[in-house]
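pls read this stuff:
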Amino acid sequence: MMSSGFACLFLAVVFTTLVSWHVSSAQCQRAGWFGTGCRYQCHCADDNQCDGTTGACPAGCDPEWFGPACQYVSSQFTPRGTYSDLAWLTDGDPDTCNDGNLHTITVDLDTPQPLTWLRLVVNDSDLLNDFQDAEHQYIGILGCTGAKTARVDKLTIDVACDTEHVVDHVTLTGSRLETLCSLYISGGRNVALKQDAKQPSTLNVWTAEKAVDGITNLPDPSLTCAHTLEQPSWWALQFYTPVHAMQFKVFNRLDCCKERLIGFRLDAFHKKSDTINVFSHIDSTGVPMDNYTITPSSVIKKSVERVYIAKDRNSKFLNICEVMVFGDSACPRSRFGRECTDQCNCADQQDACFVHTGGCPTGCAPGFMGQNCSIACPRGMYGSGCIKACSDHCDGSTSDCDARDGACLTGCEPGYIPPMCHLKCNVSTFGQRCEKICSRNCLHTECDHLTGKCIKCPPGFAGDFCDEAVVTTRSNQEVSSDEVISNSAVIVIVVVFVAVCAATTVVCVCLIVRNYGASRQREPPSSYDLPMAPVPNGTLCGSLPQSPALVKDDYMVPSMMQPLPENIYEMP
């Protein structure tokens, strides 16, 4: 019995898991819904079904919606002035654009609202590269303060504004307005959808959550409306994630009893537990209406966590068929998405990404790509936008590298410098991680970055590593006959030149000696004359003619002697 009960319990758990997996992963059965538990709503053209996971509409959005999963209301506007035809501005067709004649366009919003973000579609991709060029200001958006941009694709750009004021018109101007094809102004998305709804009492099956089921057009109101049964009569909505609210819509019951909503009050609170509201509205129409649109006259600065709708104390019935709150999630700086569960991946981590798309004004962080910078680089690519290729010299069979900085995950092939492995080892190193030193025998210590073999050897050495002494053989000494002749000629020229220089020197010395002797013969002897040094016979200059002097005892003596003046101090 015990084992049988355990088996049944096990099968029940498996079955429940499979059913849960099927519901969360399969396509939603009803068109217009996607996500886990089909909790998010999309608005595709012609009521087509969107992607069950992402909400993307293959054929585009319904004309009244745009943006991610076609969830954002496209605020209605009317062109100001006498323009010939501006249908191209709102037709959603990227092939119909400004004819080039308009350099300023002003549109008046049907309902004044905070200006949170816009989407522009152009026909010139170069414009998006420098959209915020302060010098040229290609397209200016008057009314959008603190504009920041993020590209969606090559022809689409989102512009986020600092939401400081409610505006009733938007003006586009600039020299490149001629490239504009479409303009979308965000009216927010319905952030009330399938949030936590409560009411103090319930009439039959008219439960509170039916007022946030996204359905407003079923013929049987009990299937889609909330209804209280007794006093006090109120209905409350608590957001799972705080929101920035810019507009409220309350839908009335259509089959009967519309008057029950006359004079209702709506309050918005910053915190669930707050008793002081950040916004309040009391219906003053005095007549029943199919639906009520409530737009605050000024921006609600604080985020909202709770919305409260009530009737006066004398009424026990409060009947609401749908409540919509348009705005967006109040995500922390590093998060985006409806539930703020998605991580921003911006190049500048201090700069918040767009909460509606995750788009980054500073571009994607290294390692990521895509509209919301959430797609990791494919294998073999890295860097911001994943436009750089990993090195072909990463170690291993594939070029795998860190998607952020390109560092090879398995190191480098031998001969390349880590971590990027793009550059060869420097000329003095080689091998794995370039840790080996080239042989000192290599000329200039330079070797091959892979093998370590010397690029060149110094004289007297050979071999891959220049460690073999060169042995001189006849083959080493053989030279061509032309070289022999050339070298011999050089030697002869040098010898002749040296001989001529030596002979010339000897002749010059002998001539100097001879001339000096002749000059002494002509001068009168002086008492200060000293005997000349002996010049033995057979000397280098002995064959030259001698001066007419007597040779005695191997000394040269002048042939004539003249007496000195009596007074050597007197001039003759």
Residues 94 and 181 are 6 Å apart (CA to CA). The helical segments are 2-25, 125-129, 474-477, 481-522.
